[in-house]
Each structure stands twice: as C-alpha cells, then as structure tokens.
Amino acid sequence: MGRRVLVILGHPLRDSLCGALALAYVDGAREAGAQVELLELGALHFDPLLRAGFAGDQPLEPDLAQAQCAIAAADELVFVHPTWWGGAPALLKGFVDRVFLPGFAFRYRADSPFPERLLKGKRARLLVTMDSPPWWFRWVTGQPGHRMLKTAILEFCGVKPVTVHAFGPVRGSSPKRREAWLKQVRRLGEAGA
Questions:
Q1: Which strand (E) or helix (H) includes residue 98?
Q2: CATH of the domain at 94
Q3: What is d(CA 157, CA 102) in angstroms, rounded to the nearest whole number?
Q4: Which helix (H) or strand (E) holds 21?
Q5: C-alpha span between 69 and 167 (Å, rounded)
Q6: pTM over the 0.85 mark
Q7: Residue 2's pLDDT band (boundaries 50, 70, 90)?
C-alpha cells in the first residue's frame, strides 16, 4: 500500500495557478502509487470563524468532520495556496482555526508549557505562490506566512518535516515558466516527501 496523501487546496478557486499546482501534485503522487485525496476548501461548506475560541462549543460541520478524518488518515499533508498580504488566504486560516483543534491536533498538558503533539508521524509540504520574488519574501518580509503554517501550526501539532516550495513572482510570469513550475510539482508528487 502506497503512502496516503491529502492535498489541501487553500485557494478559493480551482481554476487558478494554485489549482493547477494541486492537480499536478495529485497526478505525480498517484503515478508513483500513492493514495491521494484532494480537498478543495473553496467547495466546502463551513463557518471559517472560531466563534468562541477554544472555550466555546462549536460543532464541526460535516465537511470539517470529514476533513479531520482525512487529515488523521494521511501520511503526508500538502497545502497549496497563494500568498495574500504576507500569508495564507482567510479561507485557509479559517479552515485551520476550525479543524486543528485541541483534542484533535494537539492537547495542552497541565504540567508542561508544551503541548502533546497529536499529529506526530505525518509530514507536510507547502506549495506557495506569490507575486513577489521568493528571495524578497524571505529576506525582506521574513516569510510570515511560511513561518505561521510551518512552525506555529504544523510543527506545533507534531507534523515534521515540513518543507516549503515557493513559486514566484507569478505576476508577469510566462506560460513557459508556469509550465516549468507544474512539472516541478508533479516531480515532487512522484518523489514523495
């Protein structure tokens, strides 16, 4: 049995460069024998607001309950999203707020400032598009979006390793350049994490 991969499209539109990258990863991973599921956040029905924080009781909508099952079953999580205002779209952040909850993704411990990491044993990739050059995003802005999803969310919950692949600048990119990105992502899917 091949690795189980969950590709999470964090762009609200499937008809986007991020959508094409997600499908390229899916194709490459399937070609290599992986069991792959594509989760398109723009097609899910859920309230992206964690209305009362962790103190409140906000039942998961059916789409989010299914997403938690898919995350729990996956060996590899692949997040594909654009960089908007230095981070992930609100749709993806709202999904994380609602799904990566205490008791599912982590558990606080009374005797320690560090949580129990409930998603240990999983690895992840971030496939991130941006209009700025990746070197600018790294050295000038400090990669706030990468750091948030990689370190503050996924590694906090025990997901390791988390590798980041940045594609940009998208604005003004040629069809040839975009085709090269799609081929690169397909190869990443074939190779696994």
A1: helix 90-99
A2: 3.40.50.360
A3: 10
A4: helix 17-31
A5: 30
A6: yes
A7: confident
For range 138-158, the mean pLDDT: 94
* Residue 136 confidence (pLDDT): 87
The residue segments making up the domain with residue 152 are: 4-43+59-191
Average pLDDT, the chain: 96
Residue 190 CB contacts under 8 Å (≥ 6 apart), including other chains = 28, 29, 31, 32
Q: What contacts 43, CB < 8 A, 6 or more positions away?
A: 14
CA dist., res. 9 & res. 18, Å (int): 7
Report pLDDT for 1.
66
What is each CA distance from 193 to 25, 115, 122, 162, in whole angstroms? 12, 25, 10, 9
pLDDT tens readout for residues 5-21? 999 999 999 999 999 99
Residue 94 is assigned to a structural domain of this protein: yes
Confirm whether 29 is domain-assigned.
yes
Decide if 52 is inside a domain. no
Sequence-distant (6+) residues with CB within 8 A of 161 are 123, 124, 193
Identify whether 53 is part of a domain: no
Do 81 and 128 form a contact (C-beta atoms < 8 A)? yes
Q: Rounded to 5, what percent of the chain is helix, strand, coil?
A: 40, 25, 35
